[in-house]
Write a structure and sequence with these properties.
206 residues, globular
Amino acid sequence: MLAYLVFGSGLAFAAVLQPGPLQAFLLSRAATEGWKKTLPAALSPLLSDGPIALLVLLVLGRLPATGQQALRAAGGLLLLYLAWATARTLTAAEETPAPPRDAAPRTLLQAASINLLNPNPWLAWALVLGPAIVSAWKQNPALAVAFVVAFYGVMVTGLGLFILLASTARYLPPRAQRTLVALSAAVLAALGVWQLFAGLRAIVRA
């Protein structure tokens, strides 16, 4: 169970640090409206990921075991690519400005809609989360539950901390920002290697 707890927590940690539409909204809203009004938006992944998870798991359930493991290996490659893309941002000198205040969604449902329309959760569920949950469920349903709880526990907590930080400063100090980006890239790379070899090993043994 520890492996799935670490994997789920690591994925969530990296996802929180990845720049995207949801993070841009949280940054803008917290900086302009304060943390009290923004904090509920940290729960938005719990609303948006439900339909995504249901659809992806229904499709994955119809795939043969080899196909599921092939997707798992592909997810490892995706994580390695994200690690490489994240590491490349360390050399970027320019900061990405927050979106204007009047363009930011103002409710939890709107934040969930942004996440639902973002391709990243779809790719994550199809190539990483979905195969991991299916594999865990086949071993023991408790492992799948532990994985999901670890992932969303860290995700919601991390987004909440991000909101609190963004409400006091628009951007992290450059050195701290680079450190977090480097840490995120390292986590993604480690998880990608683990996911890739786990999928390939299962295919070979099949």
